[in-house]
Prior knowledge:
This protein has about 240 residues and is an alpha/beta fold. About 35% of the residues lie in helices and about 30% in strands. It folds into two domains: about 5-70, CATH 2.40.240.20; about 80-235, SPOUT methyltransferase, trefoil knot domain (Alpha/beta knot), CATH 3.40.1280.
Amino acid sequence: MSSRFFTTSIDHTAQTATLEDSEAHHLLHVMRLKPGEQVTLFDGMGNSWTAVITGTSRRSAELSLVEQISTASHGGHEIILAVAPPKGDRFRWLVEKATELGMDTLIPVETERTVVSPGSGKLDKLQQTMVAACKQCGRNQFMKFEPPISWQQCVDQYRNSHTILIAHPNGDHLRDAFREIEPTRHLLLAVGPEGGFTEEEVAIALRAGAEQVSLGTNLLRTETAAITFAAAARLW
C-alpha cells in the first residue's frame, strides 16, 4: 500500500494537488519520498486518488493525479457516538479509535457528572488526531465533530431520527439489543461520564424512547465503554 496524505489543495481542472505544512513535512522529511514516486491522496470527504510526486521544495510538494480510487458517497445508516469526554489523552485515544471504527459523528455531551468540556483549541488538536487515524486505517471520509451540547439537547435533537442506545449496567445485553433493531436504522450510542448518567438523565432518555444496553459485567472506563459500544454497532 502506498503512503497516504491528506490535502484539500486539489486543482481538478489541471489534475494536480499540493501538499503543505505537516503533510508536506511528512512526505519530505519523514517518508523522504522523491519526485516520480506514487502516493495516495484523500480529501476527508470520501474522495481519494493515486498521485505521482512531480516536484518538491523545502515546505511543499506538487503532485499529479493519476486515477480517482474512491468517490464521496452518502446514505446508509448513520452511527453517532455521544460521549461525556474523559480527561486528557483518554479522549484523544477515544477519537483515534472511533475514527478507525468508522463512527460517522462524535458528540461531546455535557452531563451532571461531566468533568471535561473540550474547547475549540482542544477540538483542533483532536482533528489532527483524526487525520492521522484516517491516514493509518485507510479511511477517506472524516468523522464529524459536533460542538459540545447538553444531554437534554442531545436527546431532543435525535429522538425522532435515531434509535438511542444508552450504555447502562441495567440494560439488555448488547447482542440482544442489536438483534431487535433494523440494520438500516440510524443509531446514537450514548456513554456517560465515569460516575455514569444520573437517574434523571436516564429517565430523560427513556421518556424519549431510548433503550438501555449492558456492555457486560465489568465496570468500564468511559473510553473503553465507548469503543466497545462502537465496535459492536459497526459489526452488527
